[in-house]
């Protein structure tokens, strides 16, 4: 793409070795998080978890306490982050979280191996695990926010998910001693790698771009109004609310299906491995920019949800058993979860919201949905579990379709009512081609042979130079320098917000500030100004 991302401009592209470390570390995290059922299911093999001291046994006591505490930790972190309180320095947070995480892994392994049958031990261990897991999630959130754009996030998170599926499969095959040794290795990778890849010479806020409040800090001139800042959580919901729904649905369904999940974990791990590998292939093959409400979320996931619903009905009618339905269900929610995590990395990487806010919201949503799902699953008879999953999938599919429709309608109305007016198609043809990555067709410009190939590249380079010169001459901020070339290519605010993973409100505010500084009143003026020779 002609326009270089602001995040990419201030963050060096990770090397292959670093990406491998991130994949190993995230795979270790996914395979050792005690708030994640994929990790703890394998430990039901230990005799101590067969002792029925409570309705759900020791594992039930541990899991429910861990999820509840992690949810409360997430709520506290959200409150702190939303109030823009100065965050804990990375080194201190990382070191404390790493030590606590490793201690919890050792404590959990000790209780499993020595069959500790004291009921009070497991709630206490659950409290410690909830706090430690929440802290390490925050640490990994900061690392991923600094390192991973959307494409890299899809590759790293997808590969880590596939690798963690293999590790969880080994949990069920190894002897108990080997299982615990693997848990400790994964815990060590998850705890140590973030500290190893951290850049101590960078200030904690060095990578954060301008927030909405910074965008509106300068007083506008008459006739060029700016938009007022919205609460951080409301703006974050605008950006990542739809994506986060996939993680919430994943957590709830996996918790509701815990009995079937325990008995058929192989189907889940197979679906997770295939989903992760498929997303990696998609990210490597896709050309052009990734949009926030991209095709995977607007088209692929709704189709998958409908296939899951149809597949369940067909298998029930043909008496084909629940295996096919389970595979489809696990596949849908695995894709949704991986896409959500990658999108959250990209949103935090964009810099409008702090990584602490993005990932503390995700932690709270995931653990809260898991806790509620466990309560629902425990209260329902076994024959009603499939009904609950079907209802949840139906609601999820409906929400995907509805939100996609509302978003498209809102974008269409916004495009018509924007005060920055777009040039007619024929004027765009006069003023030149569009982006070099093929977005010209999206703008309605058909490139003739005379302006294709090398001439398009030359035009794009020339346009970028003119935008850079204008930005320097008029004192545009770093984020405004990033947005100006998109305006020069003819894109509107909705597209810019989507491709930059920022909220529409923030994009519009920056656009208005660009108009004010360049002393123009519409996108047509921007096009004429940037394309004049």
Automatic annotation (TrEMBL):
Name of protein: Helix-turn-helix transcriptional regulator
Domain HTH luxR-type residues, every copy: 469-533
Keywords: DNA-binding, Membrane, Transcription, Transcription regulation, Transmembrane, Transmembrane helix
Organism for this UniProt entry: Adlercreutzia shanghongiae
UniProt cross-references to PROSITE patterns, sorted A to Z: HTH_LUXR_2
Transmembrane residue ranges: 61-80, 92-116, 122-140, 152-172, 178-197, 239-261, 267-287, 299-318, 330-350, 357-373, 385-406
């Amino acid at each position: 793409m002609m326009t270089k991302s602001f995040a990419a401009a201030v963050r060096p592209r990770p090397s292959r070795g670093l990406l491998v470390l991130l994949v190993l570390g995230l795979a270790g995290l996914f395979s050792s998080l005690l708030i994640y059922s994929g990790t703890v299911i394998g430990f039901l093999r230990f005799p101590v978890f067969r002792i029925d001291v409570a309705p759900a046994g020791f594992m039930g006591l541990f899991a429910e306490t861990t999820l509840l505490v992690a949810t409360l930790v997430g709520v506290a972190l959200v409150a702190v982050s939303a109030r823009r309180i100065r965050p804990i320095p990375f080194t201190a947070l990382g070191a404390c979280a790493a030590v606590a995480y490793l201690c919890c892994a050792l404590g959990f392994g000790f209780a499993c191996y020595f069959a500790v049958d004291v009921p009070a031990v497991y709630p206490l261990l659950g409290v410690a695990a909830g706090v430690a897991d929440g802290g390490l999630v925050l640490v990994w959130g900061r690392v991923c926010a600094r390192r991973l754009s959307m494409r890299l996030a899809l590759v790293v998170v997808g590969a880590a998910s596939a690798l963690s599926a293999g590790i969880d499969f080994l949990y069920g095959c190894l002897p108990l001693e080997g299982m615990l040794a693997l848990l400790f290795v994964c815990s060590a990778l998850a705890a140590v790698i973030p500290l190893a890849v951290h850049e101590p010479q960078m200030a904690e806020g060095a990578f954060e771009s301008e927030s909405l409040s910074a965008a509106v800090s300068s007083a506008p001139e008459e006739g060029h109004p700016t938009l007022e800042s919205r609460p951080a959580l409301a703006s974050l919901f605008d950006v990542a609310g739809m994506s986060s729904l996939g993680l919430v649905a994943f957590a709830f369904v996996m918790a509701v299906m815990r009995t079937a999940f325990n008995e058929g974990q192989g189907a889940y791990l197979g679906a997770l491995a295939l989903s992760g590998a498929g997303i990696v292939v998609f990210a490597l093959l896709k050309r052009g920019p990734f949009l926030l409400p991209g095709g995977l979320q607007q088209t692929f996931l709704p189709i998958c949800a409908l296939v899951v619903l149809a597949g369940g009905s067909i298998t029930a009618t043909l008496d084909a058993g629940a295996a096919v339905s389970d595979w489809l269900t696990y596949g849908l929610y695995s894709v949704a979860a991986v896409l959500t995590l990658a999108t959250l990395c990209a949103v935090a990487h964009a810099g409008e919201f702090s990584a602490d806010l993005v990932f503390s919201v995700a932690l709270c949503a995931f653990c809260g949905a898991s806790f509620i799902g466990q309560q629902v699953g425990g209260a329902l008879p076994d024959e009603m579990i499939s009904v609950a999953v079907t209802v949840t999938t139906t609601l999820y599919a409906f929400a995907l379709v509805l939100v996609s429709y509302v978003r498209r309608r809102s974008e269409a109305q916004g495009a018509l009512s924007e005060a920055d007016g777009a040039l007619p198609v024929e004027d765009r043809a006069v003023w030149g081609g569009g982006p070099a990555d093929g977005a010209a067709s999206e703008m309605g410009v058909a490139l003739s042979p005379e302006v294709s190939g090398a001439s398009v590249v030359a035009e794009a380079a020339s346009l970028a130079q003119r935008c850079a010169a204008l930005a320097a001459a008029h004192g545009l901020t770093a984020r405004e320098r990033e947005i100006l070339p998109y305006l020069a290519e003819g894109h509107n605010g909705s597209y810019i917000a989507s491709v930059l993973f920022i909220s529409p409100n923030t994009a519009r505010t920056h656009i208005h500030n660009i108009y004010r500084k360049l002393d123009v009143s519409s996108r047509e003026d921007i096009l004429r100004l940037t394309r004049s020779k």
